[in-house]
Amino acid sequence: QPSLPPALCQELAPAQSTEQAEPMSVLGGSSDVQARASLPFTHTGSSWGRHRSLVGHGPSSSSSTPGAEKREKQYQAHQGFGDHHGGVTSAHTYFYTDEAKCDQHMETFLRCIDASSGSSEDGFSAIKLTALARPQFLVRFSEVLVKWRRFFHQMATEQGQAGWAVLDTKLEVEKLQEALANLGIMSKAESQQWLAGENVGMSGTVDLLDWNSLLDSCTKLSRPLLIPNRKTGQLEPLLSRFSKEEELQMKRVLQRMDVLAKRAMEKGVRLMVDAEQSYFQPAISRLTIETQRCFNRSQPIIYNTYQCYLKEAYNNVTGDMELSRRESWHFGTKLVRGAYMEQERERAAQMGYEDPINPTYEKTNEMYHRCLDYVLEEIKHSQKASVMVASHNEDTVKFTLRRMMELGIHPSDKKVCFGQLLGMCDQITFPLGQAGFPVYKYVPYGPVNEVLPYLSRRAQENRGFMQRANRERDLLWKEVKRRLLTGNLFSH
């Protein structure tokens, strides 16, 4: 197995990183240290019929639903955060204009996929779902998903399973049916018929993945699910149904993702769906998983992104990977630290909900390495997982290399790749490529007037790197001397 040359070990020396956020944007990757582009897509025919409905629709609307004031605080609109750029320097953001603009973004993404394909044999393209869907829809869909999940954990707590690991938490079917009957949601006979119809609970228990699979049928029940408010005692709808317009928005975004995924598969490009703000993320992940189900059957075409500065990151990674095991599709993931920390914390403080971000940078590092180790173990044992380690943190890169060696994961397997931004951390990127590891540079794609501001923010986003300017200068001088001595001044 190739090992890093001594020079790389020195260049990845233990300098303390002050990095606070991994960048995420509509960028392309590059492998073997050659820049690549990445783009959006257009719709040339839908396989929408293959996608299961994710929620049912009903008479309520997204913006004027009765009882909107009772919605989860995190998933309420807030005038002060209408501009998603606030507190974000490292990620491109989109503003919703209309569906035609979403289609234009898709066309741009398609051209990016083509550009990535033309520049390398195994390129990536990265897309943002806020470019392809109405943000209000993503927020509302996220609220539905989170409420459904919390209802599961509420019942698990009542069964004495508070604080259990996500995949270890299981509701006993008998107790679940009793709880639903006691809450007046449905009779035991009705719940028995409901679970049997969905092929859930045959083992005598229902876990979170089983529970999530029930969401579609639950939203289509003839009457809304009402549960008592623990404070007021009044019955409130657990899930408000989607309007026909919201169902149409769901269909449109899945169609756009379908078109992009088809183009990526046709061109031999892997498609990464970037993570965004936490109040969008449940919907983004669910839509991404629906696409993975279709396109990751034989190889990882679609990659989901997990932000490890989130407290729920490990639960999200382990839950989604278990789903991929059960359904036999390839788990493709990009791990980042996160790009929206300041905005997330300010919003949580102003709106009065729990800060979703880990309390310290050290905790985020621990979360990143924990998630990464879980994926690497899966690669060793099943070969049906792939990961991009998108990090500028030298300790994280060294951790990855050490674990790959310990687990016998060879660079030529191409199950693990690395990614850094164009213009940053070349002292990590180039030695990795020279040592035979798949490594990519993220390159903005689009009109010059749009990508230049993105590149100009490189100096702002990780101010801690400026503290190592002298070290990088020394490394650059060493590289110049090496090339002069070897006669390779203009090559790598």
Instruction: Return the string of H and E elements.
Output: HEHEHEHHEHHEEHEHEHEHHEHEHEHHH
Shape: globular
Unreliable parts:
1-71
**Class of the domain at 6-39 and 104-138 and 253-486 in CATH?**
Alpha Beta
Main β-sheet description: 8 strands, mixed
Q: Helicity, in percent?
A: 40-55%
The radius of gyration is 23 Å
> What is the CATH topology of the domain at 6-39 and 104-138 and 253-486?
TIM Barrel
Report how far the terminal alpha carbons are from each other.
22 Å
Secondary structure tally: strands: 12
Name given to the CATH architecture of the domain at 6-39 and 104-138 and 253-486: Alpha-Beta Barrel
Give keywords.
45% helix; alpha/beta; 12 strands; TIM Barrel; two-stranded antiparallel sheet; 492 residues
Explain this structure.
- Helix content is 45%, strand content 11%.
- It is of the alpha/beta class and 492 residues long.
- It has a domain at 6-39 and 104-138 and 253-486: TIM Barrel.
- Strands 1-12-11-10-9-8-7-2 form an eight-stranded mixed sheet.
- Strand 10 (385-390), helix 13 (394-407) and strand 11 (416-421) form a beta-alpha-beta unit.
- Helix 3 (135-158) packs across helix 9 (281-295) and helix 8 crosses helix 9.
- Residues 1-71 have low confidence and may be disordered.
